[in-house]
Amino acid sequence: MSTSLINTTIKPFNATAYHNGDFVEVSEQDLLGKWSIVFFYPADFTFVCPTELGDVADYYAQLQEMGVEVFSVSTDTHFTHKAWHDTSDTIQKIKFPMVGDPTGRITRNFGVMIEEEGLALRGTFVINPEGEIKVIETHDLGIGRSAKELLRKVQAAQYIASHDGEVCPASWQPGEETLAPSLDLVGKI
């Protein structure tokens, strides 16, 4: 990715997802009006991927309470997502839409396609209700992500969105002090 997608608006897409026992249509419109996480992973029936998706599933109720929807995406089909959901105890915990992207359009829109393999990198995107990307995290295929840290990043993004002029320092947690950048702070931190 040569340019950052931070603060850009998500591009249009249409796809089919497996969600709560049904196949449903999903588009960029489903990400508007609420906070969203788009969680790319390489492939179903693999090794690190179910640990990550299971971790996100464990935090899903808390994310929902915060007004956040999660969309997991791989270049598999929605049929493959259903088969994986039906056969894996870990994946059966998932209550969020599992989006199929067999053409790679969504994966390319977010800049996480590994072209020579037809797979997605481990890419996480936090998107505000206006459809702007506020957080990007991309990992090598062998490095799993932490849903607990993702939750903290969403909390920080939501906080600064509603508190103009404030920023969240490293390792900030809800309820802790934030910073208000100003001339008075220069050299004092």
UniProtKB/TrEMBL annotation:
The record's annotation in NCBIfam families points to:
AhpC (TIGR03137)
Q: CDD domains from the entry?
A: PRX_Typ2cys
| InterPro entries in the cross-refs | AhpC, AhpC/TSA, Peroxiredoxin, Peroxiredoxin_AhpC-typ, Peroxiredoxin_C, Thioredoxin-like_sf, Thioredoxin_domain
Q: Pfam families under this entry?
A: 1-cysPrx_C, AhpC-TSA
Instruction: Supply the enzyme class, top level.
Output: oxidoreductase
Write out the similarity annotation. Answer: Belongs to the peroxiredoxin family. AhpC/Prx1 subfamily.
What EC number(s) does this enzyme carry? 1.11.1.26
The record ties this protein, via PANTHER family, to: ALKYL HYDROPEROXIDE REDUCTASE C (PTHR10681:SF121), THIOREDOXIN PEROXIDASE (PTHR10681)
Please state the span of the N-terminal signal peptide per the UniProt entry.
none
List the catalysed reactions: a hydroperoxide + NADH + H(+) = an alcohol + NAD(+) + H2O
Q: What does this protein do?
A: Thiol-specific peroxidase that catalyzes the reduction of hydrogen peroxide and organic hydroperoxides to water and alcohols, respectively. Plays a role in cell protection against oxidative stress by detoxifying peroxides.
Mainly localized where?
cytoplasm
Subunit structure as annotated in this protein's UniProt entry? Homodimer; disulfide-linked, upon oxidation. 5 homodimers assemble to form a ring-like decamer.
Q: Where in the cell is it found?
A: Cytoplasm
Query: Where in the numbering of this chain does the Thioredoxin domain appear?
Result: 4-159
Keyword list (alphabetical) reads: Antioxidant, Cytoplasm, Disulfide bond, Oxidoreductase, Peroxidase, Redox-active center
Name assigned to this protein: Alkyl hydroperoxide reductase C
